[in-house]
Amino acid sequence: MLDISSRQQLQALRLNPLNQLASLKLKQAGVAEDRAVLPIFCLMEWGLAGGRFCSTRRLPQELLRLRLMADQQAAVSYLLDNLPGGLPQLHRQLLRMSPKGAAEALLEVLDMRLRADPRNPYPLS
């Protein structure tokens, strides 16, 4: 159960343009959103459930870790900070994609982040 400050943080993050876009992609796919989870993570989980994208066993584990972090701003920052091309480019790219393509693109961002993280002994297939 989320405390009040966590719920407020979650609601504020839901207004972020990337989460709004992820919410739209979920609606286009006919997927019900989990209101306790940021849309970006819901879309990525839906993409994993399709089974086509999974370069390593670590990817689902790390996605779950991000989704469950108490500080969701830190989770989003981990995923998106120092993004090659920047966030506006990713946003434009995702707008043109199908829901499945957008989910896979976000999963590729996480995969790239995990490969670049020196604290992560990656890849562990």
Total count of domains:
1
Radius of gyration: 14 Å
Beta-strand content estimate: under 5%
SSE run: HHHHHHH
Q: What is the count of helical runs?
A: 7
Descriptive overview:
The protein has helices at 4-14, 17-29, 39-49, 58-68, 72-80, 86-95, 99-116. It has 125 residues and is mainly α. The longest helix is centred in the C-terminal third of the chain and has 18 residues, at 99-116. The model has no long low-confidence stretch (mean pLDDT 87).
What is shown here, in short?
This protein has 125 residues and is mainly α. The chain is 66% helix and 0% strand. The protein has one domain.
Please give a handful of descriptors for the protein shown.
66% helix; 125 residues; globular; mainly alpha; single chain
Layout of strands and helices, then pairs:
Elements: H1 4-14, H2 17-29, H3 39-49, H4 58-68, H5 72-80, H6 86-95, H7 99-116
